[in-house]
Amino acid sequence: MRHGRWRFLLGALAPALVLHVVFVLSPYAQAFYLSLTDWTGVAGEAHFVGAGNYARLGGDSLFLDAVRNNAVMLAVVPFATIALGLGLAALLRTRRGSAGYQIVYFFPQLLSLVVIGVLWSFVYNPNTGLLNSGLRAAGLGPLARSWLAEPDFALAAVMAVLVWSSVGFYVVLFRAAIEGIPRELYEAALIDGAGGWTTFRRLTLPLVRETVQVAFVYLGIAALDGFAVVQVMTVGPGGPDGATEVIGLSLYRNAFSYGRFGYASAMGVALFFATLTLAVLALRSGRRERLELA
Amino acid sequence: MTLLRERPSVAAPPLVSRGTQRPNPLPQIAMLCWAVVTALPLLWAVVSSVKSDDEILNSPWSLPAQPHFDNWARAWTSANIGRYFLNSLVVVGGALLLTMLLGSLVAYALARYEFRGNRVLYYTFVAAMFFPVFLALVPLFFVVQQLGLLGTYPGLILVYAAYAVPFTVFFLHAFFRTLPTEIAEAAFLDGCSHGAVFFRVMLPLARPGLTAVGIFNFLGLWNQYLLPLVLNPDPDRYVLAQGLAALSVSQGYRSDWGGLFAGLTIAMLPVLVAYVAFQRHIRAGMTAGAVK
Lengths: 294, 292
Known about the structure:
heterodimer; A: mainly alpha; MetI-like fold; globular; disordered C terminus; B: mainly alpha; 14 helices; about 75% helix; about 0% strand
């Protein structure tokens, strides 16, 4: 019996563990070391350069563009998505047709970001795209422009796509959280004469706060990425003139176009610490608020 | 079900309390607007996929005079979407099977057996969920290259599975803990081996959890782009996302717009069909994954 137990455990755990160590753990560990070298891909030719790669990051104007763009995305995309998602979820609570709306809203979540990128590059096409031809048909022709080719609009166009593709998921997520609120509370609010907006602000919002925080972490991590949509959709990619450059794209280009593997790894480490900081901040603010409620 | 019961009791009182006042139409308008914003680009792409190039360029908002299904045939064969589709099927199918097998074994072993190092192993697996894949990208490329697996189906399947296992373990670990112990104990008394208890008793009991995480993994793997972009450079073995991205670059130059829209539609269609068939499961599975 005891013998069979150990054999089963070994058989259950060993294959997955080998896979995990070879393809996940060892690459993550190697990345930290590589980021301290000037490795260009030739075996045995890695020289230790200390923090040299990190110092170079500070003078790389395209990388700084990428950091700025990811920071803008981090400031805009989660807020816009959560505002739209929460608003729609609250509206769906009481109204008929709710299930049908959720089906439609959720669908973009299932599409690959590549499909979404290709689709929206058509929508934004300056001459034949859905957006510009729609604007012209509505008599708003002067508003039509080359959305992805103008530095002032390209990043906004990318962020709009990111928001478009994720709102539906958060509608469904928040809808489920709102459904968990006891119905008696809403009845009490109604008897007290609270209107729709007051009910939302004073009752719904405080009770779904934890779900909103989870959403912030997820959307924040997505906003630090943005690689697939930018790579597929924008000119360059990352253009015009760095207007839509993101950290992942800089990393990918430095590694697999220029062969600067050590330098690219330093970008990966920087991205890792940005993600970690985000998660820790969100979790800490979460703990404090739970105390306040109690 | 609860929706149906909830609706009258919650929706009706405002009408009563506000007397003859009409309900505010703005919420309905807002909900409808977002539905249009969501659906319109998708419908537009589907309609455009059966239009001639001339119609696509000159009347982007109109319906085609007659449907051009030859766009689809061209995209499937001469633009290789068919091949990319099959490549995706092979890679995602293989990776999904491997992920579910390894993930459920690890989750079960860690959830149901006490031994030294259990916690350490669990966190070793689960911690990987919180690392950005970008960090691993460069060393991963060389690991796969040194194993001679670059641009091969087995290479992609192993890497896909390796990156999908941590979430699968995390999700199923919690699930196996909630299952009752009595049935497994009875099976042991009847002389079942540990392996038989897992495959014949515990896996069938865990079916709801397996379905949820299976759907989640399928979509994640089907939509994977970064890993194949780096690890799968051979155009003959492109997966669908890679093929579509390459197509949008090359067809743009050749300006075969109808073919490109058709390729896009073909890429969306299986997901749409699966969604219509299983939409309740899919939404439940994916949102449950996020909350846990």
